Automatic annotation (TrEMBL):
GO molecular function list: metal ion binding; metalloendopeptidase activity
Organism domain of life: Eukaryota
Taxonomic path: Eukaryota, Metazoa, Ecdysozoa, Arthropoda, Chelicerata
Name listed for the protein in its UniProt record: CAAX prenyl protease
Catalyzed reaction equations: Hydrolyzes the peptide bond -P2-(S-farnesyl or geranylgeranyl)C-P1'-P2'-P3'-COOH where P1' and P2' are amino acids with aliphatic side chains and P3' is any C-terminal residue
Ranges for domain CAAX prenyl protease 1 N-terminal: 45-227
Ranges in coiled-coil conformation: none
Chain ranges of the Peptidase M48 domain: 232-461
Membrane-topology annotation of the record: Multi-pass membrane protein
Naturally occurring in which organism (per UniProt): Medioppia subpectinata
Cofactor(s) listed: Zn(2+)
Record-stated family: Belongs to the peptidase M48A family.
UniProt enzyme class: hydrolase
Amino acid sequence: MHCLFIEYIGQQLTTYCTENNVFVAVFAYLWLSLSREIYLTTRQLNVYRSAKLVPKELRPDFDLKTFNKCIQYNSLRLRVWIVADVYHHLLTAFVLWFQVIPLLWRISDQLLPPLGFAANNELIQTLVFVTIGSLLSTIADLPISLYRTFVVEQKYGFNKQTIGFYAKDRLMKFVVMQTIVGAVIGAAVYIIQNGGQYFGVYLWLYSFAVTLFLMTIYPDLIAPLFDSFTPLPDGQLKTSIERLAESIDFPLKKIYVIKGSKRSAHSNAYFFGIYKNKQIVLYDTLFRDFHTNKRQKGTKSADTSESSSHQKMGCTDEEIVSIMAHELGHWYLSHALKYLAVAETVLLVYITLYSMLYQNEVLFSAFGFEDKRPVFVGLYLMFRFVFWPLNDLLWFAFMCLSRRFESGADAFEKSMKKGPHMRSSLIRLFMDNLGSPVNDNLYSAWNHSHPTLLQRLKAFKTD
């Protein structure tokens, strides 16, 4: 029955979808996607241009200078972002129009003999293809990444990287990512080629197992490759966090401080690990002591005429505990498990759709593959282009879900009775990271994973 259904779907697609129609639809949606992003971004930029006064809800905490600095920083970031988005859409149009993907596939095949492999070895050819594609993508993204890091972030005092550190960090991430991706993709191709009529089930089970495996090894094997994790020293803060974790039966094993300041002045806090191996990570830039010591050593910020609010960068111990109450709220409310369940359900739907289409000649020929239907290329073309509208709908759905979860974590933090520290910690994080103080509703609905600052403050205030 399963095979007959898949065959029926394939016949219907062959009847109604020509290769020209598929290509035109994908190409048209590319420009529709870009138009949507330009429209939403323009709306948000107009909000920034019209923002002349601090909203009354923020006046107890924001002076006009800090407010304007937030507006200027986010305006610049958004202008760079839309230039990058136009650039990436143009690159995608170039790749589709000039059939770059089948060209790279042929080049990958030609490289096999010089690398010591037999020609037409699809598994090895796939790994070469992925490596070349990733390398070209990284190079294409480099100008935008450099400008964001060494112009935008540098201008507002966030960037702490040298060119040398940046290059080394990017290279390390590329090598590690290619190693992991190569192993994962190689096994996936093998499953599709040898899994028979139930390969979709096997592929989904494999994907789920890989997700759990990476979640398990990340804390001990992957994360330390990029950052040094130092145990939080004994003291009042550590004791308070441990008491908080104990009060809700959070299986805390370790609390680390990560030297985020070697890359950026942005601050953050999170936890990771599965089952009983939970570990909390605090960025060093989160601590008020870090910024106090920095000033005492004579280090200047990008803004030499700092406001009094800027002089108080970093959070107090009480504010950090309040932040962790929010983070642990995600665990208490099982948000990670719910995310995983939703994501795996979506993946199962995608794999089912792929199993119906992966041998369809029309879909391959629409993208320039006339005589070959490589497994991974089909997977990429469908997930990236054929399912593009569905991807966007899911993006919006996940943003809505994320905002709902963040509101739930805020409510949990409030239930822990952190009092004034809820507001002060949120404001402090927001000001230290120069968040967006005013937002267009449509732009925020599409792009923001968190409720806006004003929405969160209103929720804190409501009894």
